[in-house]
Fold:
Amino acid sequence: MSGTERTERVDRAIAWALFAAGFAALWATHGELGYVRDESVYFAAAETHAPWFKLLLRSPSLALGDPALVRFWEINHEHPVLMKSLFALSYAVFHQGLGWLRPDTALRLPAFAVGALVLPLSFLLGRALYGRKAGLFAALCFLLVPRQFFNAHISAFDVPIAAAWLLVVYCFWRAVSERRWWLYTGLAFGAALATKHNALFLPFVLTPFALYRAWTATRERPTARAWVWRFAAVYAAVAVLYLLLLVALGPERFLEKFLLLSPHTALFAGLGVGGAWLLWKLRPESEDAFRPLAAVQAMAVLGPVLFYVHWPYLWHHPVDRTAWYLAFHAQHNHYAWLYLGELLREPPFPLAYVVVKTALTVPVTIFVPMVLGLATVAVRALLPLSPALARRWPRVTFPEALVAVNAVASILIISHPNVPHFGGVKHWFPSMIFLGILAGLSVSRASDALLGLLRARKPDLPEWVAAAPLFALLLVSPLIATWRVHPYGTSYYSELAGGLPGAASLGMQRQFWSNNVTGVLPWLNANASRGARVWLHEVTGYAFHDYQRYGWMRSDLQPANGPADADIAVYQYHQEFREQEFNIWQAFGTTRPVTGLYVDETPQIVVYRRR
Amino acid sequence: LASPERRLGLLELGVLVAVAALALLFHLTLPRRSPDEASYRAVAEVLSREAKPGDVLLLFPWWTERARLFVPEGLPVVGYLGSDADPLERHPRIWVLGQPGLPRSGEGDFERAFLPGRTAVGTPRDFGPLRLSLHRNGRHRPTLFSSVDALASASVYLEGGNGVRLPCPFDGQAFRCPGGETRVAPEWHELKAQPRRCLWFAPPGGNRRLVAEFSQVPAGARLVLEGGLIWDRGWHHGPQLTPTRFGVEDVRTGRSLLRVDVPVGMEGLQRAEIAPEGGGPLALRIWSQSDRAELRELCLELLSQGPEGAP
Structure:
């Protein structure tokens, strides 16, 4: 076995070990996590989807009719169903079928797997760019950001879309230099579209890279360059024609006319066939130009096809139901959100919000190397402006640029002042993985410097002698922070914020998603009178029911609609909901709570009992 | 000479080690900065022994509300975003329960907002990380009359644009006007983060006014009208919303004494005050009006206060 083969085998083993460790860590620690508002809906959706798969086996013609599809798939149709289908299948197999797992564990199992997938993928990408140490740090730091660790447990889409985004970029990176990976890129993009709408931005991030690669690969080859031009022209022409159709028909008629036999589908077919023919012509001229453009073509064709195929709800009405889905996200509500002492209720939101929030919620020993890694790549990207410096520093490579652009892409998109800003940091998780890889670059460089110092005294020291203590030093604080805040991950703030107390003084959002309520459920079980009416503020009806049927909360307790008809009110401390706490004071005749969840002194959940 | 990459690596090593050491120090010391239950109970014991009627407990930092679990029931606890600067006019003495050791507690900012007009009484006492101190409140204004406390003595009615009055009967807790929606009642509400026990006084809409008359208001050093739109109602804006007006009139002369106009989009507590003429009890009328009632949920209070700093 050659040295390279041995290295690859070791790296593959590390990748598998990272996956297994991540999966095990998530599974082992999910039991304490409450059900976030969205997750309770996705649980319900998955449980509604699950019987459809059985119906499909038993009576396919019935299962494929639109009434059955609406019945089983209309629930929560504001999100595509790849993850929900996985939750449903896992629930049907591991809980209902085999009886091996608790229902909530079965529902969350796919989330653990997808979350754990981030570790090997970021390791492999980081290792390829900057070496094994960088890859390892990138992988480890993903789950040691407490908010990411929290989100990786739950049956939601924010970590899965981050994983899918990473997978697409990984496939694209390999597609640039390896056969067949253009096809995998298209398939991965289809999976990303089927995961969450963030994926719609991926082509805008990757296509410039594909064009740049094709352009540089055909520098000395005019015939190939001409085919590249034609390929780009076909895409531009189709985009312009779609735009003209939209302008000419107006949005409503544009949708009405989007039929199987219509200019709309003709354009899509033209893009598919025309693009494929041009690539077929290009390939013999330049394989290097073909591969990245083929990845784009695969994304353009396979993405929409897979998106349609994976979602039964679209099968009979693909256009209007997809249009509704897109419109839902284009016009999403703005929820109130506390930021530096101000309640943000509507756009325009502060431009610095995403950067500040990231700085205050990523452990400082991970955030600082992220900044250093990104800064050094950014500075090196500017080196061509100074020939003297350019000679002394390596230029930014293609994959480095790919990683750096993806590290800032989601952050820039969410930073737009008109994009909804609720939801903590989860909406730009795709950026965080790539920032983790850049953090790995910085840590790897520091580790090499330490090794240099040590080897000046003892030249035969192995590499890990420098890397291991540095890793330990950098990751012990995030580990402590993750352990201390678990399972209340949405409440976490970093050392830069001053932890939770510092963030409270800064006037930052204390928590969201309602899952912190689990902190007071033991008190409720011990102290509520039999059949008491309990108002779990901000907890969905689904979650209330889940807490009872999965053993968190006594089954005799009754849900109340508000303080007026409650015996006990469990208030979620949010600045935007203070009026509701004072409504409790009014209804219960007291301003004194009976218990609460206080994390590092910060009020999270406050419980009142009627006098 | 080392290569630029190596020099950068050494620099990064130094930065990362320093940051990691500071972060570790932060995590190792953080748990000690939070008080345990015994500390709170010790504070509560002192307060039960030494607090007097009329005292108030102010929290610093404002959000350290865990104290509510322990503080004696009769002692009001104040802590909300912005409470550092609350004049706490009703209270001659203020207990401050502080946690200056918490990260970003902002003790300097707190003192700048809180201390003017206040005089420390005795020395602060520490109970673990909790610090309890007592202050005389120079911003105190004794309350001679509060429309919230005196509501039962009022007469409440809806007044049409033509002057026709429609009485709103009192059910022991609230005055409820015919039609069911409009009421006047003492309630807890939020006015831009601040909890206020105030009179629910949402205008009925149109040119009608909601009116409450009080016949025996002692004339103190000044009459104060405070109020505002609750919760997020002040933030809401749009062409369908209309300004909210409220004020106080002399029942005998019909003269307007106080008036507050709340334009659409204005949040928080608004205040108007006047030094009343003459010394005898006043008959006063509080009113509110908005052309459209939608989202105009008003909460207010009329106070008659003694001179500042009086016992």
In short: Chain B has three helices and 18 strands. The mean pLDDT of chain B is 95.
